[in-house]
């Protein structure tokens, strides 16, 4: 395998992270991140000194939080996202996050060993939001195979 799968997802909080309305989500961050770290096929996740990414800016909106990770392929990420304890957090997201008008996540293939930046993830997500699924950025329901050769360009 010469590529890994990167993912970015964003969410807009209904209140600041220290607000009681978000306390349940904040309490789940450590165990859900630990679950990802130990999941089969997990490679890397975005985090700061805090151990999570809630204090890493996605854009100028302080209520938008970002999550990024890298996986060996689509199936391990799908299993983690929808078939582990993460799925309950995903189902409960309306308690903590606003409904966004545009898609809030995308996937893309990266060369083995590459660590994506938030700027790269934002570019991929904005590309998906404007163009839909392409080999450059896609979703679980409309995914593309690993690229052949040097990688995918816009």
Write up what this structure looks like.
There is one protein chain. The protein has a single domain (3-142), classed as 2-Layer Sandwich (Alpha-Beta Plaits), CATH 3.30.70. The protein is built from four helices and four strands; from the N terminus they run E-H-E-E-H-H-E-H. It is globular and about 50 Å long. The model has no long low-confidence stretch (mean pLDDT 94). With 154 residues, it is an alpha+beta fold. It has helices spanning 23-38, 74-83, 86-91, 118-131, and strands at 3-12, 42-45, 64-71, 105-111. Strands 2-3-1-4 form a four-stranded antiparallel sheet. Helix content is 30%, strand content 19%.
